[in-house]
Amino acid sequence: MPTKAEIKRLSKPIKVKIRKGDKVRIIAGKDKGQEGFVAAVSAKEGKVIILKDNPENPEQPLPLNVVVKHRKARTQGERSARIMIPAPIHISNVMVLDPKTGEPTRVGKKIVDGKKVRFAKKSGQVIVEVPITSDNK
């Protein structure tokens, strides 16, 4: 039976200040200091998957926080392979980049023209929402 604290924690909505498409910098872990954009957010688990731009092939971004998965050959003609896949990073280990200075900043919310928007706490500039198209899904 769940405890009272667990029930309370599960009943609250999960607040996430990082959204898909945000430019972020990793502030802890093996890829500390690297910058990329958020490809996916799992609010329930509190994790994000981060990719960075690939200068050689812009349509195929490179993953950050890579883990190697060994895949065994299933048939005789197939070869075994080592596949690089992005591992999720906890939300507390990334920070959104300020649109004005490009430095990591905290995110706040305020009402501008009757609409709630996110803003960078360092510069006070509004963080522009990235439109989600069918390509980004």
CATH second-level architecture of the domain at 14-98:
Roll
Shape, please?
A: globular
CATH class (first level) name of the domain at 14-98: Mainly Beta
- Return residue spans where pLDDT drops below 50 for at least 5 consecutive residues: none
The whole-number mean of residue pLDDT values reads 88
| Global Rg | 19 Å
Q: Regarding quaternary structure, how should these chains be classified?
A: single chain
What descriptors fit this protein?
mainly beta, single chain, two-stranded antiparallel ribbon, 137 residues, seven-stranded antiparallel β-sheet, SH3 type barrels
Provide structural commentary.
With 137 residues, this protein is mainly beta. Helix content is 6%, strand content 38%. The chain contains one helix and eleven strands. It has one helix spanning 4-11, and strands at 23-26, 35-42, 47-52, 62-63, 66-71, 81-86, 89-90, 94-97, 104-105, 107-112, 115-120.
Task: Give a summary of the structure in a few sentences.
This protein has 137 residues and is mostly beta strands.
Topology:
Elements: H1 4-11, E1 23-26, E2 35-42, E3 47-52, E4 62-63, E5 66-71, E6 81-86, E7 89-90, E8 94-97, E9 104-105, E10 107-112, E11 115-120
Antiparallel strand pairs: 1-2, 1-8, 2-3, 3-4, 3-7, 5-6, 8-9, 10-11
